[in-house]
């Protein structure tokens, strides 16, 4: 049974989400603040985190940032009353995978949770098949219509990262840290250069496209 950690300082909201997710077949763990959430992550395996933003001690932004230092793959859905573009930008910037605002539409929340878990499963399998296109992280091969394409290491890692999380927005800073490393001397324009090269190599590709999200970064969308 998949385990989801729900973090919210409002007891009624925690219980509401818990009841709905348990009914949907998930095991649910609860935390009323960010510190409790981190303590649970130290001792329990989790498949996903659903977290509020406005909480005492450690708020949602700081919590997500801390989680990303512990686990860069676990799906994180932020649930909050803050719906301004800058709030969403900051949430994605610290590592959230998706964002939903209060009052919560529980059916929509479940759809988003299911989509995030599905993407995480694809990522963990280290292989992505899209029609005539296949990218294999274990073999580090890219095959299109039966032809093997030779991609430099950074281009390969960048493409695999984007395709592992379709429609997830990555900031340039996130991509720099994950692909080039936090100690890299390269600047964020390096990401733009590699994205341009990938677009040139896969121009006219029928399986996916790399989309620029103005003011945020990049995402991959499967066609």
Description:
There is one protein chain. With 223 residues, the protein is an alpha/beta fold. The protein has eight helices and twelve strands. It has helices at 11-23, 34-43, 60-70, 85-94, 106-124, 153-164, 172-180, 189-201; strands at 3-7, 27-31, 48-51, 76-80, 98-101, 127-130, 133-136, 141-144, 147-149, 170-171, 208-213, 217-222. Strands 2-1-3-4-5 form a five-stranded parallel β-sheet, sandwiched between helices. Strands 6-7-8-9 form a four-stranded antiparallel β-sheet. Strands 10-12-11 form a three-stranded antiparallel β-sheet. The model has no long low-confidence stretch (mean pLDDT 90).
Short description:
With 223 residues, the chain is of the alpha/beta class. The protein has helices at residues 11-23, 34-43, 60-70, 85-94, 106-124, 153-164, 172-180, 189-201; strands at 3-7, 27-31, 48-51, 76-80, 98-101, 127-130, 133-136, 141-144, 147-149, 170-171, 208-213, 217-222.
Write the layout of secondary structure elements.
Blueprint: E1 3-7, H1 11-23, E2 27-31, H2 34-43, E3 48-51, H3 60-70, E4 76-80, H4 85-94, E5 98-101, H5 106-124, E6 127-130, E7 133-136, E8 141-144, E9 147-149, H6 153-164, E10 170-171, H7 172-180, H8 189-201, E11 208-213, E12 217-222
Parallel strand pairs: 1-2, 1-3, 3-4, 4-5
Antiparallel strand pairs: 6-7, 7-8, 8-9, 10-12, 11-12
Helix pairs in contact: 2-3, 6-8
Strand content: 15-25%
Radius of gyration: 18 Å
Overall 3D form: globular
Biggest β-sheet: strands ordered side by side in the sheet: 2-1-3-4-5
Number of helices: 8
**Could you tell me the mean pLDDT?**
90
Specify the oligomeric state: single chain
**Low-confidence regions:** none
User: Structural class of the helices, strands and pairings?
Assistant: alpha/beta
Task: Give me the strand/helix succession.
Answer: EHEHEHEHEHEEEEHEHHEE
Q: Which sheet architecture does the biggest sheet show?
A: 5 strands, parallel
User: Share of helix among residues?
Assistant: 40-55%
Distance between the termini: 31 Å
Instruction: Give me the count of strands.
Output: 12
